[in-house]
């Protein structure tokens, strides 16, 4: 399964999301991230993607969760989720992404992947989690989900 990352920058009860300009989930608000490339660890990929997408240097992100993303019967991605409280540089718009800060209580779930509302509260409260989310073949509707919290998170 294709490994991928999401890396959430958190500061003062706010989270940085991007409006994705291309690729899977184009037009949605998501966390910065993308596919893990050959020879990279998930943590290296997470740091690289944040730099590429919003020009921010992330310091030592911690892994907080992971999930399988399934379209129809086809496992699509295995996503490693990170959080980072220390980073430098002002988030900037790039060809890939338009960054924006949101208060935890104003996250725009209606403009995000449907699974995000299930697990992001755990990210905000500092819990770890593991999930499996099965969408229809087009990726439009969440059909089934499993979610476990308090998992042992290794990178
Ligand atoms: N259910 C889900 N909820 C969510 O919020 N983000 C998800 C998700 N399933 C996958 N993602 C994220 C993981 C990853 O960051 C992104 C998919 O990455 P892309 O295919 O856009 O990869 P890249 O940006 O690396 O694209 P390329 O430039 O084509 O390699 O979608």
UniProtKB/TrEMBL annotation:
Record's function text: Oxidized purine nucleoside triphosphate hydrolase which is a prominent sanitizer of the oxidized nucleotide pool. Catalyzes the hydrolysis of 2-oxo-dATP (2-hydroxy-dATP) into 2-oxo-dAMP. Also has a significant hydrolase activity toward 2-oxo-ATP, 8-oxo-dGTP and 8-oxo-dATP. Through the hydrolysis of oxidized purine nucleoside triphosphates, prevents their incorporation into DNA and the subsequent transversions A:T to C:G and G:C to T:A. Also catalyzes the hydrolysis of methylated purine nucleoside triphosphate preventing their integration into DNA.
Q: Which cofactor does it need?
A: Mg(2+)
Q: Could you name the Gene Ontology cellular component terms for this entry? A: cytoplasm
Q: Which organism is it from?
A: Haladaptatus pallidirubidus
Q: What is this protein called?
A: Oxidized purine nucleoside triphosphate hydrolase
The cross-references to Gene3D superfamilies, in alphabetical order and at most eight, read: Nucleoside Triphosphate Pyrophosphohydrolase (3.90.79.10)
> What does the record give under GO molecular function?
8-oxo-7,8-dihydroguanosine triphosphate pyrophosphatase activity; dATP diphosphatase activity; metal ion binding
Q: Does the keyword Magnesium apply?
A: yes
Assembly? Monomer.
Asked whether the keyword Metal-binding is assigned, the reply is yes
Reaction catalysis annotation: 8-oxo-dATP + H2O = 8-oxo-dAMP + diphosphate + H(+); 2-oxo-dATP + H2O = 2-oxo-dAMP + diphosphate + H(+); 2-oxo-ATP + H2O = 2-oxo-AMP + diphosphate + H(+); N(6)-methyl-ATP + H2O = N(6)-methyl-AMP + diphosphate + H(+)
Look up the EC number in the record and give it.
3.6.1.56
For this UniProt record, give its keywords in alphabetical order, as a comma-separated list.
Hydrolase, Magnesium, Metal-binding
Describe the family membership recorded for this protein in Swiss-Prot or TrEMBL. Belongs to the Nudix hydrolase family.
- Could you mention a single GO BP entry for this protein? DNA protection
- Domain called Nudix hydrolase: residue spans: 1-125
């Amino acid at each position: 399964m294709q490994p991928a990352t999401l890396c959430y920058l958190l500061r003062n009860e706010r989270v940085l999301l991007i409006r994705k300009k291309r690729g899977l989930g184009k037009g949605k608000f998501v966390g910065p991230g993308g596919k893990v490339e050959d020879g990279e660890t998930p943590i290296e990929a997470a740091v690289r993607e944040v730099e590429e997408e919003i020009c921010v240097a992330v310091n030592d992100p911690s892994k907080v969760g992971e999930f399988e993303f399934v379209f129809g019967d086809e496992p699509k991605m295995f996503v490693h989720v990170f959080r980072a409280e220390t980073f430098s540089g002002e988030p900037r718009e790039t060809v890939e992404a338009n960054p924006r800060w949101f208060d935890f209580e104003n996250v725009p779930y209606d403009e995000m992947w449907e699974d995000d509302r299930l697990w992001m509260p755990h990210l905000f409260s500092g819990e770890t989690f593991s999930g499996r989310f099965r969408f229809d073949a087009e990726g439009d509707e969440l059909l089934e989900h499993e979610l476990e919290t308090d998992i042992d998170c290794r990178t």
